[in-house]
Design a protein that fits this description.
InterPro entries: NTF2-like_dom_sf, SnoaL-like. The chain has 5 helices and 6 strands, in the order ααββαββββαα. The protein is an alpha+beta fold. Strand 5 and strand 6 form a beta hairpin. The chain is globular, with a radius of gyration of 15 Å.
C-alpha cells in the first residue's frame, strides 16, 4: 500500500467516526504541530503526548463523537496533503464544522508527523482551551521546522 492509499484508508475510518484509527496509524515518535499564534498552537510529541494531551482532551469536548471526511488527497514522496471537513457537536450543543489542511509525513507505514491547519477562529469561539498546554513552545517548534526545511527565519 502506498502513502496515499494508507491515508485514504485512514480517512475512510475517520469518516465513519472511528477516531481510534488515527492513534493506531501513528508511529510512537509521532509529532503533531499546530502552527501559528493562538491558544492551541504548539507541538505534541511523542504519540502518547499527541493522544493524551491533544486528541483525548479534544474528544471530551464533543457530545456525540467526531467525523472527518477527506475532500482531496495529494501525495508526493513521504508527504500526503489532505483537505478535509470535520463534523461534531460540542457538549454545550454548539456545532463544530471545521475545515482542515493536514500535511502528513509517513515513514515505515506509520504517520511520523502531522502539521494541521484549520479555522482557528472557530476553535477559539467554540472549543475550550487545552490544559495542559502543548509540550513545546510554539516559537521553538517553528524554528525547528524552519531548520529542518532549510528556510531561514525572515522575521515576526
Amino acid at each position: 500500500m502506498n502513502n496515499r492509499e494508507f491515508i485514504a484508508e485512514l480517512f475512510d475510518q475517520l469518516a465513519q467516526g472511528n477516531s481510534q484509527a488515527l492513534g493506531a496509524a501513528m508511529a510512537e515518535d509521532c509529532r503533531w504541530v499546530f502552527p501559528g499564534d493562538w491558544s492551541w498552537s504548539g507541538v505534541w510529541e511523542p504519540r502518547s503526548a499527541v493522544v493524551d494531551g491533544l486528541l483525548r482532551p479534544l474528544a471530551r469536548q464533543f457530545a456525540d463523537g467526531y467525523r472527518n471526511e477527506a475532500d482531496l488527497i495529494v501525495a508526493e514522496g513521504d508527504r500526503v496533503v489532505v483537505q478535509a471537513r470535520g463534523y461534531a457537536t460540542t457538549t454545550r450543543g454548539e456545532p463544530y464544522h471545521q475545515t482542515y489542511c493536514f500535511i502528513f509525513r509517513i515513514a515505515g507505514g506509520r504517520i511520523v508527523e502531522v502539521i494541521e491547519h484549520c479555522d482557528t477562529a472557530l476553535v477559539e469561539r467554540v472549543l475550550d482551551p487545552l490544559i495542559p498546554a502543548p509540550l513545546i513552545h510554539q516559537a521553538e517548534a517553528e524554528e525547528e521546522l524552519r531548520a529542518e526545511s532549510g528556510h531561514a527565519r525572515v522575521g515576526k
